[in-house]
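pasting for ref
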Amino acid sequence: MKKQFACLAVAWTLCLSGATLFAVPIPDDCRSGGFAIGCQAWTFNHYTVMEAIDKTAAAGGKVIEFYPGQKFSAEQPDLKWDHNATDEMIAAVQAQLKKDGIRAVNYGVVGIPNNETEARKIFEFAKKLDLYGITTESVESIDVIEKLVKEYDIRVGFHDHPKRANDAAYKMWDPNYVLSVVKGRDSRIGSCADTGHWVRSGLNPVDCLRILKGRIISSHLKDLNEKSPDAHDVPYGTGVSDVPAILKELKRQHFVGNISIEYEYDWTTSLPEVSQCVGFVQGYGDAKHWNETHRCWLCF
């Protein structure tokens, strides 16, 4: 009994000191089919950030992941949306998010400098927007990243691009390498699992997710038309990626991060396909919930 009270006292001390073991989760009302599904604004990079928010809502998404450098608005196209945004720009984006019922949850892929003062600007930006996470490939900044993750209580996911035929130094495509980077680090540091890029690298996304079990911070979920470096995006369930198996594995790992649809095809006319992707995830989650609550029907 004394030991239990001692544990409670430690937990209470942590709460009072502001220390946390896990970053604040994405709210349940931002989930559809059990997942926080929405768009990476890069999907709409031919448009402004304000239009990307509108289009994410039109597709049925609940969340959005921003990227650095997108044009700000039709009225102010010369302004760029990134972590150097003014408070006025941030307020305008927050108003647009509220109007469309979209929650900003992530930011990247962004380079995080190996300089605490400069890196802090990115975390301050994320904190102002109340983001769940930041996406990067800046392995060289891991020590600075870990310090700021602990201070700001914001997750960081290391993103993977495809294997590079003429660049053996690029290793982020390999989930074993990403695991070696984050192993032993704060639990809020892990992987932004880009499943399409894993397929382009000749890997099985489910196997990659299992390698990184417990370290999946977020995902750029993709389905591709073929297994090749030149493959392009297609609506979930119509390509070569086993999207149901990917979602099942994420569920098995109790994944609570955001799934970003990063649709890099038919740039100016992709909204119907993006909507199909949202609907697929929602339908999968709803069907899985129905099966779990009506198991007797599955006996026949």
